[in-house]
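User: Predict structure, ligand pyridoxal-5'-phosphate.
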Amino acid sequence: MPNKRSNADLLARSLAAVWHPCTQMKRHETLPLLPIARGSGVWLYDVEGKRYLDAVSSWWVNLFGHSNPRINAALVDQLGKLEHVMLAGFTHEPVVQLSERLAQLAPAGLGHCFYASDGASATEIALKMSAHYWRNNGQPQKTDFISLQNSYHGETLGALSVTDVALFKDAYGALIRHNATVPSPDWREAAPGESAAHVALRCIAQLEAHLQQHHQHLAAFIIEPLVQGAAGMAMYHPIYLSRARELCKHFNVHLIADEIAVGMGRTGTLFACEQANIAPDFLLLSKGITGGYLPLSVVLTQDHIYQAFYADEVARGFLHSHSYTGNPLACRAALATLDIFEADDVLQANRGRAAYFNRAATPLREHLKVKHFRNSGMIWAFEVESPHADFAQRCFSLALQHEILLRPMGNTVYFMPPYVISDAEIDLLLARTLSVIEQLI
Ligand SMILES: *Cc1c(COP(=O)(O)O)cnc(C)c1O
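Assistant: Predicted complex:
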């Protein structure tokens, strides 16, 4: 590879050869594309040596910092043993260990792990598995799904059918099966004087009415527990989850918990479902599961799901595979990630970190142009009242000039930092964000 050490150079080559995700490429005629050369802890360094605090954990995947020595060591060890073997007809220590440990950590009964390589594939697997379960159980008409308004479960065609994003629906609607949505318990929708729990219960009544009417054709309800990430970090009361769990059981509809973003400690517990004390029929994990190192996703299922596929006929088995299913390197990164959770008592340490963050964020929370400041575990979000229609873009660019990587969604600014962020780095992040916002109001 040519060794050219300027940002502009790598930028031009990238624009010529790489089609970037979820990006109108033409915008990069004027907007910077950041050529990153290396990372360390919460920091990313560009080709010219400038640094940026990764306040969004590189699209919510990083947990313990970039280039973490412990995860690096596990991967180097695994590289010397086995980089990959197909998982049909073969097995290996990392995938077995990971499955055993996840089953032990997850809510009760989620004892069977099915692997894929990204979040959207985990959604596809759960939807297919749910409908196939009903087919195997003599109810082949149960093929519909419901999700929350403003839901996000990935961008492949099946996942888009349970994803409620207008931009996607407009562009790809003709390719997608129609599934209904039910109202989101997002507490920002509270009427004056209404509590988050009230909003949740109001939405539960609407869920119940929908289930009552449509349960005979419904396979599953898929939901992002506690925080709807792509909806703009919409947060809601856990009572919605516990009541939804009861209703789904009552109406014979599966509950799929998509913890791709919120799992692995993001909301303060290892899994968000724990805060509602529920066990879903399916639990989806990806993003943070490898500490942000390698693509891996897993669908954990209850034993009664697994048993419905266990038979002599091939067609009753679950028909799904990916080339890299259960990749040993990815599984080792995930095991190293779980080791860090244990060895450092990360959930406990994060409670202290979040408390510090919340104290330090007081000027931001109390700012006149900041609305709906909210926090769940290691996620913070708020809306900014700004006269700029292109607030998100301006905020992103200005923050970079202040050594901060923010990626606002509309007028929603959020922080989802790696769990290794120090008090000094929290102070720096909040002070710089405040000064960016001051320039945009
Ligand atoms: C990111 C995300 C997905 C999709 O995962 P990909 O790896 O990007 O396909 C699905 N659901 C939720 C809640 C997510 O945040």
